[in-house]
Amino acid sequence: MSKQQDNSKDNKDKTRVYEYAKSLNMSSKEIITILKRLDMPVNNHMSVMEPAMVNKVEGFFRDIKANAAAKRAQESGGATVSAASSPQSQTASKPQASQANKNLSQDRQGPMNSIKTTSETNQSQQEQRPAQPQSQQENNNQSQPSASASEGSSNNTRPQNSGNNQGGYQGNRQGGQGGGYNRPQGGQGGGYNRPQGQGGQGGNRPQGGQGGGYNRPQGQGGQGGNRPQGGQGGGYNRPQGQGGQGGSRPQGGQGGGFNRPQGQGGQGGGFNRPQGQGGQGGGFNRPQGQGGQGGGASSRPAPTSRGTAAGESTNRKGNNAVNKNKTNNTGHQKRFDDGKPNFRTNPNGRGGKGGRNNRHQSNQPPREKIDNTPKKIIVRGTMTVGDLAKLLHKDASEVIKKLISLGVMATINQELDMDTILLIASEFGVEVEVKIPVEEDTFETVEEVDDEADLTTRPPVVTIMGHVDHGKTTLLDAIRSTNVTGGEAGGITQHIGAYQVEINQKKITFLDTPGHEAFTLMRARGAQVTDITIIVVAADDGVMPQTVEAVNHAKAAGVPIIVAVNKIDKPDADPDKIKQALTEYELVPEEWGGDTIFVNVSAKQRLGLEELLEMILLVAEVNDYKANPDKRARGTVIEAELDKGKGPVARVLVQHGTLKIGDAFVAGNTFGRVRAMVNDKGRRLKEAGPSTPVEITGLTEVPLAGDPFMVFEDERKARAISDRRSIKQRQSELGANSRVTLDDLFKHIQEGDIKDLNIIIKADVQGSAEALKGSLAKIEIEGVRIKIIHSGVGAITESDINLASASNAIVIGFNVRPEPQADLAAQQEKVDVRLHRVIYNVIEEIEQAMKGMLDPIFKEVVQGQAEVRNIFKLSKVGAIAGCMVISGKITRNSEVRVIRGGIVVFEGKMDTVKRFKDDVKEVAQGYECGITIERFSDFKEGDIIEAFVMESVER
Ligand SMILES: Nc1nc2c(ncn2[C@@H]2O[C@H](COP(=O)(O)OP(=O)(O)OP(=O)(O)O)[C@@H](O)[C@H]2O)c(=O)[nH]1
């Protein structure tokens, strides 16, 4: 036995009840019933059938048959049995339960067939003999000794040699091709994936010879002998070669030649088979070639050495199965209704599929088996055995069989994973295309992985940021007009939120909303649009707060920075001063040993622009920005508005794939179909590839800047998705937020959600910001690191909130307050803003939060704000602030703080609130009032008096 055979024996060395039952076309229950009657140990369908048990069961069948035969002989006086299967004979033996009886009665019919068998292939010993009466056959069988026999021995007395002479000799004799007689696993596995060679041969084993010839391009299939399912595997998927030969088994020869494009069908054994099915497997799905040869003829299931000569007499159905599939079945009919069309046609009881007549279609001409196996299937995820079978145009049982052959026990409803699906499909020679659908409702979160081969270089997308008046807009305009692509010169430039220029035959896309606000807003909305940022610094001015903000925003986004030192035309320009100043922010010029590119430009005089563009291309080349243009488009809405003439328009940056006219899409929570597409030169486009900005019409509503954009196969789907997204958004607005807040920081840390605690510091003076930074840096809590992503001086701005939102950061205001817009944004974006006046408190709060000890029992709730319009100084009471309540309400019991230019100048208790000389409890928005504050009288016009209370909050 070969090594391969050895390797596969573990899987094949046990016949279980259900397998055995299946081999007999019986139910497990029936076999279990029989085993129990025979006092054999059996639990359930998975119990192992020991050879002794098999023998017993077969002996049981034999006895029944013998009884029935005797009875029939009595009735008919031993007359020669005609080919017709009499109903009486079918019902004659009824000692057992239904299925068993059916089989048995069929079995009994076997010997009545008057079939002359001729082996047309390798069975020289095949003889043509007239049918013999059952009794005689029995005798013959019994008289056959278990003598040794050589392979394919010309034992003329043994017709069954036609089927099993190469491997399936019964009994304990030597013979066949040496394969595994009397071994439980003899000959198994022979020929798996072997390019050539002879399949395994087996004898006297429960599943001997099964593996012979799987996937072998050439060679002889497995041969089996004396086994319930012998020879099954012979020749699966073999392009050429001889099918498996089976012998002495209930379903001998089944496997021969499955799916073989050419070659000879399996030779079915069929000796001693209860159903006498010869050579079933021969030539399944074979476009060409010889049919399987039907096997031997013994009508007996007995696994003994009997049956040599007798088999020929009657019970054979399968000999000479060579291309006999078209012939009508004139022979005796047998029921072997296992649901497979291939098994149901029995040409003359001689064909390769012999022995398996469908009793319902007995007189119909057998149909040509058309192989309608698809070449390729599309798989969109796991599926059940049944679904896969449908997709493969196969019977579920065929798929199950394949699974079993691969060592997987499965039912029709069992879910198959992707690997198994691929394996099974390849077993059937079917190509699989895996298409996992995107999580359509949250398509922006799905990262599509493209094949490296499908990617092509795309233009980089650049954003310009910098301090006010440093020349961002001028630079953008200068670049736009300097580098208009050849043929498009003279086109009417359109503002579509971005434009493209071309230099050295390479394109660059510029987002033309300068400033980090737009940049960060996009990021806060989850859109990562920019590849490269240009920080513009005026050489005559220097590094300013917004320069620093811009640097921090770019860094937080992890986007490469190029510094454009602008206005170098100015006499007081000092580029080196800028370089020097920026080293503080880790932007060190290359000439100083750093890795930041600095370019001196004059936007106004258009100096250095080309170099700047070349540097952009250089960075782009290094980073190798690529996209797959051959798929449906995905991108981001840069701007959108309701145009009077065109309706809703969206300016979209295509980032992946190609957007085409007519494409149905979802943008944020809106949907539409691209009606028209215009580029930044005002030209109408039919399609737009990666990094192309376009203005599109055809939307139903106006999406938001930063909204994700994606094309779907049809408008109905797009609408459904946009509807679901709207609902989801509303739900999430109502539900909990996932932003980091100090209150649940510990939870996040514990869950491992965050490792860096991002903090933005805004303070009244640079000194306190630095002090705070230094103190926070010293906090050491295991598992989390504090990362100051931005710090600055002044009120907390909307831009700070956007940055916090984009970076999941907490904002700490030290002696400063949020601007009204920032306050609103913080509420909307659910950014945690902590306001303090004492550094120690900040440190303690953060530390406690990190340790999970934060006690948020009290929380400050701002009630309203009043603006000081007049100041009345009274000698007795000090100063009264004549105020207008500009938001919320002011109450007498609240605590107050006085804010001047975004900075808290005093915090204390409210003293009185008056309306026209009367003390009142509260004053609402839009009303005037007079306010006095305990121990404070230094009001100034324009001060904001903020009233707040400390409320207990549920944890
Ligand atoms: N001399 C000189 N002036 C320039 C240059 N670039 C821009 N300016 C001038 O600087 C002023 C501000 O330029 P903008 O382009 O509006 O600056 P910005 O950064 O876009 O300003 P905001 O939009 O307010 O943030 C304008 O008067 C420009 O003419 C330059 O290279 N040289």
UniProtKB/TrEMBL annotation:
Keyword Cytoplasm included in the entry's annotation: yes
Ranges of Low complexity composition bias in the record: 79-100, 117-164, 317-331
Protein name stated in the entry: Translation initiation factor IF-2
PANTHER family xrefs: TR-TYPE G DOMAIN-CONTAINING PROTEIN, TRANSLATION INITIATION FACTOR IF-2-RELATED
Gene3D superfamilies: 1.10.10.2480, P-loop containing nucleotide triphosphate hydrolases (3.40.50.300), Translation factors (2.40.30.10), Translation initiation factor IF- 2, domain 3 (3.40.50.10050)
Record-annotated Tr-type G domain positions: 457-624
CDD domains for the chain: IF2_eIF5B, IF2_mtIF2_II, mtIF2_IVc
Gly residues biased stretches: 165-297
Region (Disordered): 76-375
Species the sequence originates in: Paenibacillus glycanilyticus
Compartments, record wording: Cytoplasm
Role played: One of the essential components for the initiation of protein synthesis. Protects formylmethionyl-tRNA from spontaneous hydrolysis and promotes its binding to the 30S ribosomal subunits. Also involved in the hydrolysis of GTP during the formation of the 70S ribosomal complex.
Composition bias type Polar residues, residue spans: 101-116, 301-313
Residues given in the record as GTP binding sites: 466-473, 512-516, 566-569
Chain segments carrying region G-domain: 460-608
Similarity annotation: Belongs to the TRAFAC class translation factor GTPase superfamily. Classic translation factor GTPase family. IF-2 subfamily.
Nucleotide-binding is among the record's keywords: yes
Name of one Pfam family that matches: IF2_N
